[in-house]
Structures are given as structure tokens and as C-alpha cells.
Amino acid sequence: MSDHLHEIALEVNGETVRERVEARTTLVDFVRETLALTGSHVGCEHGVCGACTLILNGVAVRGCLTLAVQCDGARVETIEGLSDSGRISDLQQAFIERNALQCGFCTPGMLISAQELLSQQRVPTREQIRAYLSGNYCRCTGYQAIVDAVETVAQRRAGGGAA
Amino acid sequence: MKPAPFAYAKARSVAHAIELLRAEDARLLAGGQSLIATLNMRLSRPALLIDLNAVPGLGAISVKDGYVEIGALARHAQVERSAEIRAHVPLIALAMPHIGHPAIRNRGTFGGSIAFADPAAELPACLLALGGEIEIVGPQGARMVKADEFFKGLFETALTPHDVLTAVRIPRASAETRAGFAEFARRHGDYALVGLAASARAQGTRLADVRLAYFGVDATPVRARNAESALCNGDLEGAIAALRSDLNPADDVQADGKLKGHLAGVLLRRVATQLASNKPR
After folding, report:
1. Which of A1, A4, A131, B266 is the most exposed place for a label (fewest CB within 10 A)?
2. Nearest CA-CA partner of A154 in A112, A113, A111, A125
3. What would you report as the CA-atom Rg of chain B, rounded to the nearest whole angstrom?
4. Beta-carbon neighbour count of residue B241 at 10 Å?
5. Per-residue pLDDT tens for B179-216?
6. Does A163 reside within a domain?
7. Residue A68 sits in the same domain as residue A104
8. Of B39, B41, B106, the CB nearest to A61
9. How far is B242 from chain A (nearest CA, A)?
10. How high is the pLDDT of residue A50?
11. Chain A residue numbers touching B102 (CB-CB < 8 A)
């Protein structure tokens, strides 16, 4: 059915991508299955878990609650692009140091949310970190280590140095 | 799960959206933060999605004479950061951080939340507490509907399948305006078990025009009118007691009605303190 298939052109991690997509394809399924960028994960598929978080036109969004067809002309960045850019290498390192991940399923989404928070607030309180990451479920760590890692990076970036 | 197949069209204008809505089984798509979840779960299976996101001019927040107009496509994150909203509609500013999670607020829209009318959502209750109005454009033209008449039943509003919600209008706060907001949710940002949005006018040391809008306790947000009167008389304990006649919360998956009734009283105590202590703006 022709009105179910749409030609879209968008920028993903700095590269222009042209594909035909079904209207019903979500953005996270598109990047995983069509572009083979499998760092964004599919968890609950109804916006609760945050595993599918990616960046659309500069802001974090749920990849399962956005349709690929809506992203014609948009700029998308996935965890692969963010990671390759080196912009979050300190955050990634802190997650490793603090054991802020175990199975790693939530980690790409956590990193994107944490990076967005740190871009808005230089040194957020632990309470603010928790509130900002409230939309990202982790079933392994109990969150303490994740909050520790984000707090540590905030202080390091602010030049505090400690921890 | 994955959505069932549907056709997709981008509306170029409100008039174009209304024209597209003539199709059988069409749904409007704004932020999609509720709609796409229901598509994924196949709780809704529209034949056509009409995407409003490219319609120009629907996302503005403007301060007018006596009221603030919030365009239907204003994103929650945009409203949350708006200095105009903080200054002129403080209740909305209080409620914003409770709506979903940051990634959801980046995409979800003010108008979408009102049109979807989830009984446990914050904004419909805020609009009710503030005595706001909803601007609706349909095939016969535009009309305004008061919040008190907009929410009809479970996910049911004054919108017909041929209408587009284009904006909401909220009276501007004055120096005497007081606002209060509190909710209980299992996780910050989740839908509330019970919540309360309130507005009032300070009159010396007393409160007048108290409007208490509860959410998560019924099929629509509901005014607690007996409690409002008691609070106008300065009788907080009487107001809490009056909630038993104002509210009749049913059991749901999150909590039973008895617990919700109890929490409604706890919220009223907190919100009454906020109403009494708000600084004039």
C-alpha cells in the first residue's frame, strides 16, 4: 500500500541516510534494523523504560514513541555517534569505574539522559540526578552507582577534581 | 509489540488537518507520547495518522491581555522553561516537572495532553483548577470550550472526531493569585496515584475562589466543591472531611479507592500550605 511506505532522508550520526520506511516503523526499530545501529535497545515499547533513548534534533527522545517517518529532514544521534564523538568518554569511564552497569541493557539510554542533564546543569544534586534519570529503568545496579558516576563526572567537568 | 499498519499524512495547516480528518478512522498525531504507546500495544488501530508536527504557528506561548495562550504543539519542555509561564501561570510551572520524564517532556505537547485527557494526567486538572478555556477548530469553524465542560468521561472530551484542538487560554495570574500542586506517584514522572492542582485568590489573610482539581480519582479530573467552600472559610479540617462527599475514588491497578481517598486528604493538607504561603508574583 503506497501510502504506508514513505521515502525519508535524514542525518544519522552525521551521515545522510535515505530509506523507504513503513509508516508504522518506530525510530528505534529503524536505526536498529534498517541501519544496524543496535546500541539503542528496545525494552518496553511503551515509553516506560528508557532503553531506546536517542537524540532527535538535539534533544533526548524515546525511540519507541517516535515514528521514523516523522524524522524526514531530522538530525538523529544514537549512542554509537555520541560514543564515537568522544564527548561522553569521561561518563563512560566513570560508569566502568563505579560499576554503574551490569548487563548493560539500560546503559546507552542512561548515558544519553545523563549527558543531557549535564549539558543543562553544571553540577546537579543527587536528587536532581535521580529526577532526571527517573525515566530510565535499571534492573541490575540499584541506581546508587549510576548516580555516583554521574555526580563524579559533573564534579570533574566542573573542575572539582575529587573522587 | 509493533503497531498494526496505518497510513500517514503530514498536515500542512489546521484546515488541511480538518480536511484529512474526513477519512474513516483517522487520528491526529502531536507529540505521540501516549498515542504511539497505544499503537505499539495495539490498543488503538487507526487507518490513518495525521501528523500535526509540521503545522506552522501551533507551538507558541503568548501573553495576551488578561490571559496566556499556549499553542497546542508547545512541548512540555518548552512550557517548563518558559519565563512567561512561570510569571503568569505559576500553577503550570509547578506541575511541569511531574509530567512524564525529561525525554517524554522533550516531545510531548500541551495540547496533546489535554486532548488525550488521561484521568491521571496533570495538565487536564491544572486547566480545570485555573478555569482555562480550550480552543477547538472544526469543519464549522472555531469555538471555545471551558475546562469545566471539556472533560466528559474516560478519555472522552468535547472534541469530536472532526475537530483539532489548537490552543488553550488560561487567565493571567495577578498579585493575589495563589497556586498549589502535589501528587503521589510510585516513581517520579509516572502517572499519579492521586494528584491535586489548586488555585485561589488571596483576600487579606483568607483565600477566595478556591478551585481544587483532583486527578487519578475518577474518569475525569474532578473539582472538590465542598472542600473548596470549607477552605474559603479557612476550615482545613472541614475541607479534608468534605473530600469524603466530593470524591468517590474507585480501585485501580495502582491503588484501591480507600487508599486514594486517604492520600487525597494528605495532598490537600500539603497544597493548603502552599496556597497560604505563595509569594505574590
Report:
1. A1
2. A125
3. 19
4. 14
5. 999 999 988 888 899 999 999 999 988 999 999 999 99
6. no
7. no
8. B106
9. 34
10. 98
11. 60, 113, 116-117, 132, 135
* Beta carbons of A60 and A107 less than 8 angstroms apart: no
**Dihedral pair phi/psi, residue B161, rounded to 5°:** -65, -5
CA–CA gap between residue A71 and residue A31 (Å, rounded): 11
Question: Where would I find the beta strands (DSSP E) of B59-111?
Answer: 61-63, 67-71
C-alpha–C-alpha distance, residues B120 and B266, integer Å: 17
Domain holding A7: CATH number?
3.10.20.30
Cα of B245 to nearest chain A Cα, Å: 35
Phi, psi of B248 (to 5 degrees): -140, 70
Which residues in chain B show pLDDT less than 70?
278-281
The position carrying cell 462527599 is B245
Q: With a threshold of 0.90, tell me whether the complex ipTM lies above it.
A: yes
Query: What's the predicted TM-score (pTM) here?
Result: 0.95
Shortest distance, CA A117 to any CA of chain B (angstroms):
9
Choose, out of A21, A49, A67, A117, the residue to mutate when testing the contact with B (most B CBs < 10 Å): A67
Residues B153 and B85 in one domain: yes
Which candidate from A45, A59, A134 shows the least CB-CB separation from B101? A134
Question: A74, A95, A110 — which closes off a domain?
Answer: A74
| Cβ–Cβ contact B2 with A under 8 A | yes
Q: Is B56 on the interface with A (CB under 8 A)?
A: no
Whether chain A has a CB inside 8 Å of the CB on B36: the answer is: yes
Instruction: Return the C-alpha torsion angle A111, A117, A122, A128, nearest 10.
Output: -110
Interface contact B24, partner A, CB < 8 A:
no
Q: Is B1 on the interface with A (CB under 8 A)?
A: yes
Q: What does each of the 163 residues of chain A score in pLDDT, given as a tens digit?
A: 446 899 999 999 999 999 999 999 999 999 999 999 999 999 999 999 999 999 999 999 999 999 999 999 999 999 999 999 999 999 999 999 999 999 999 999 999 999 999 999 999 999 999 999 999 999 999 999 999 999 999 999 999 655 4
Residue B214 and residue B195 in contact, taking contact as beta carbons nearer than 8 Å: yes
